[in-house]
Amino acid sequence: xxxxxxxxxxxxxxxxxxxxxxxxxxxxxxxxxxxxxxxxxxxxxxxxxxxxxxxxxxxxxxxxxxxxxxxxxxxxxxxxxxxxxxxxxxxxxxxxxxxxxxxxxxxxxxxxxxxxxxxxxxxxxxxxxxxxxxxxxxxxxxxxxxxxxxxxxxxxxxxxxxxxxxxxxxxxxxxxxxxxxxxxxxxxxxxxxxxxxxxxxxxxxxxxxxxxxxxxxxxxxxxxxxxxxxxxxxxxxxxxxxxxxxxxxxxxxxxxxxxxxxxxxxxxxxxxxxxxxxxxxxxxxxxxxxxxxxxxxxxxxxxxxxxxxxxxxxxxxxxxxxxxxxxxxxxxxxxxxxxxxxxxxxxxxxxxxxxxxxxxxxxxxxxxxxxxxxxxxxxxxxxxxxxxxxxxxxxxxxxxxxxxxxxxxxxxxxxxxxxxxxxxxxxxxxxxxxxxxxxxxxxxxxxxxxxxxxxxxxxxxxx
Length: 463
Description:
It is a single chain. Helices cover 46% and strands 16% of the residues. The protein has 21 helices and 13 strands. Helix 14 (240-251) packs across helix 15 (257-264) and helix 14 (240-251) packs across helix 17 (308-317). It is α/β, with parallel strands linked by helices. The protein has a six-stranded mixed beta sheet, with helices on both faces.
């Protein structure tokens, strides 16, 4: 399988490699997002050593590290005796008169086995960095630990890093490259499950249909993806059962605090704490209308699961695990397929948002992009630019239906757009439409004359 996307990340690392000074780079992101593959691709054809921290004792951790470094520098003494203290190890690697890349993967395990490692690291970096040519990259999948213990203001390492990069899931266009020869619908269906996580895409058989992959790899006991969310939550959390209840409620459409409380029975104080943890893990987010000017004070916030796989799993798999355990996967598959047409609307919206960002040269560079709603009105995507010569706004409708989009959909969107207060009397308006089934002839003609952006599936048809 070809290495997919990550051009920006690789370019960033290459630029840092060219700088004539020691580097300490922090790279973090959720599990399976591709951090390890990225750094392995980066050190290809460079002098580099890769060390994977594990959940072992401090003594074993240092012994393993000694052998890794000893093997790279061909030092027999390190292979047999090893370092006796971490201070000794840091002095050795920082003062080595050779420019090389040192990658420490899953750094949180190193910290967990020896919390003093942060202070030892900080003192060594402060003392030796000016004399060093090291190119150090530390990676971590525990987002909360990386952001608090490594990047946080109270961390001993605060202010020491020379650069940092949070690795996000792949956007739709890049993720769809895993099934590059397949039709758009097949790509979007797989995106609804795997999202932007490369390792999930690699679990799917490229020769199989979506239905087959769903049956073989998601709703089948014993498969990697069958209990993946449970594995991740148990790795990150002490009391996952409460989080399971919350995620199930959100996946089933309970998006307000009050709705989640009613569905789970968790009190408001505890719920806010749990929601904060899930937000820190980048599993959920508090969604606001794209035009909201004061997000912290807004009462319109709705919670949504941002991770496609978690959303799909908690919507369709988690509530039916007993059926799967008793061999009823075929019946569950039929239920899922019946509900998919409605479910896919929001998945298509997310893909459409990525596609609009890729095509921003056709309208403007957005300062914010997302849904908009107020009372009983809703617009699938609204993008705004408030820093240009004149405020600009784009309104977009996304239709995952068997019926081509006609002029009536445009007229309806225009009426809804009038209800969006944002710079109503002084703005440039743009309109766009995405349609699984294309557009009527009347709509195509009108769009051409009014410079409306039309996308059939993921391809620009009219602009």
